Amino acid sequence: MSPATPRPTTAAAAPAGASPAAPAALGVEGLTVGYAGAPVMADLTLEVPAGQIVALLGANGAGKTTLLRTVSGLLTPRSGRVVLDGEDLSAVSVEDRVRRGLAQVPEGRSVVAELSVEENLHLGALWKIPARRARRDAVEAMYDAFEPLSRRRRSLGHQLSGGERQMLSLARALIAEPRVLLLDEPSLGLAPRVVAQLLDTLRDTARRTGLTVLLAEQNVTSALSVADRGVVLGLGEIVADAPAADIAADPALRHAYLGF
Ligand SMILES: Nc1ncnc2c1ncn2[C@@H]1O[C@H](COP(=O)(O)OP(=O)(O)OP(=O)(O)O)[C@@H](O)[C@H]1O
Ligand SMILES: [Mg+2]
């Protein structure tokens, strides 16, 4: 799906003055967060080094979405903090976290159903690349990275297949040149071939731009195949944090926490 000869990256297409996508490290320190009742996780600490893809794994209900929503600022922790490039984000609003380069693609996708693919992409880039011509270049770069979308430019969001919608969600996030991307189950409901394409594009983009990714997934094998590291959540704590290949090769861990 990625082009043989890449076009200019969106960073190169950005107008003068826009900051390039410098990699950022993400940290979670001593995080306790939950809803009413018992916390979902207590005193959780996690590092996502700049430029790495970390797969966040764990059974249904383990707390993956809760953790991502806390990092993006949608949930407020009871204690602990989220740190971006060494800076405490506790007092930083959701919007300002996005401005600092933290983007989230939520579970269930984020496409505007009434707008075309092209309009969705322009909308995703609007605040970051206000100049229309530069934005058009950035949109073209996304069509190169997500080739199936280029054949659906005029299709409305609600006319897309699940896989196309998921590609558009990811493209919409990437076009704003985030430094850190939080992805919640991008494989949900997709055929294995589409999942592989999507994650390959994610990995290519991360390698090219230095994007840092925290990737929550139920699709353990696919996630570990593109990740540098894997973190397994179980019973409110991290039960494994190791190179992706080591987690994939650990049968006891797979049986106990990953269900295969
Ligand atoms: N809005 C909410 N109100 C109350 N409890 C919630 C809420 N959202 C999630 N929970 C609970 O918090 C726990 C963690 O849920 P979370 O959605 O973070 O899990 P997850 O790892 O993302 O699971 P899945 O793989 O099914 O998406 C679960 O026990 C869930 O029931
Ligand atoms: Mg979830």
TrEMBL record:
Keywords: Amino-acid transport, ATP-binding, Nucleotide-binding, Transport. Pfam families: ABC_tran. This is ABC transporter ATP-binding protein. Transmembrane segments: none annotated. Residues 26-260 form the ABC transporter domain. Belongs to the ABC transporter superfamily. PROSITE patterns: ABC_TRANSPORTER_1, ABC_TRANSPORTER_2. GO terms for molecular function: ATP binding. Gene3D superfamilies: P-loop containing nucleotide triphosphate hydrolases (3.40.50.300). It comes from Isoptericola chiayiensis.
